[in-house]
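ok so I'm stuck.
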Amino acid sequence: MPKAAPTLTPVALLPSLAPLLHEWLPRQRWFAGKGRPVTGFSLASVTELLPGCLHLLVRAEQPGTPEPGPGDVYQLLIGVRKVLPPPLAPALVGHATAGPLTGLTVYDALQDPQVAALLLERLRTPGRLGPLRFGCDAGIPVPAGLAPRLLAAEQSNSSLVYGDTFILKVFRRIHFGVNPDLELPLVLARHGCPRVPAPAAWIQTERPENATLAVLQPYLRGSQDGWQLALRALAERRDFTREAHALGRATAEVHTALAAALPVVTLGRAQTELLAAAMRERLEAAAQAVPTLLPHVPGLRAAFDAVTKVAGPRPAQRVHGDLHLGQTLRTGGGDWAVIDFEGEPARPLAERRRPQPPVRDVAGMLRSFDYAARTQLPWRPEWAESCRDAYCAGYAAGAGTDPRDEPELLRAYETDKAVYEVLYEARHRPDWLAVPMAAVRRLAQD
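replied:
not stuck anymore, here's the structure
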């Protein structure tokens, strides 16, 4: 390992790092503030995690930050070396020319196999290091010496796979509070639900506030991503209803376990009106940002209005919050597993932890089947419809209630999801905008 970095305070370290982060941070896939200038940085926390490796919580200050507060907070593991070896060239952040790190090379230490290996050793032992807390489940042994590799797939977080046995998910954008991606898998594991990999170890912080930083879970070797499986079936013009039915049953099992382990509440008329009002508000904001939506606003708003006209209370519980084919894995044994309980990262943490009707997750998966079908030309609407029906039938078989029995609520949630997709695609993947817009036209006319 390189020589340990000098003991540094946040104020002392900023002159060295701020100029480098101005260039490097906005280029990262997981940086949430794209399109808005970074006006400054502050260090919320600095901890020497390992010799030559600093753990940082960095606040990026930007105008028009979507959430209340002074800016988004990002987790960085920064390595410091005199010279960066050629294999670590892609990890380069920059060369410090000011402050206490002058003359040293700064890099993303998660890409350093030595740092990744030592990080696993730290996770194997519960305890504290400054504001950092390392926890683990004693019932899930983590062997020493597992070789690390960083997953190359672009995503909103960073993931390290150890020996094809465990996977460490490192959250990049930090939300203070209880992260559902640790909370719910722990609850489901204690309840005996086999559909979700149980957390083996985790990292949390107490400064500047409580937050979850990383979660280590079993790596489902030989599993296949649900999205890729669906695309392969489409490319081969194969039926996918059997898989969709089994996935619906798996979703129902997760919902049933969550309802048994955590409180279930009842949404009365007032709460339902608030739910619909929030959907209308998101629609208006999206239409202002993406004018293509404007002609469809009246029809989409009608879907939200219809929810409030159906009498009777509705049960609400903890749900996944961002369920789609990419959040599922088909294991080598043919079973479905559900992963990534973080919810929609763009929404406030308190909202993601709020009990909601289970059909919200169902609507997300229905949209995912539609997305998959539209990746193939010519478009095959019958493939999507058969998968959607099979998924709902599988859910009904597992839960005892059919989501199609609540058509107004299901349509409202599918509409809300389509509006979210329009905004996302317009900002990040304009070439995909036609996919959710096709759903918008259909839902506006229903």
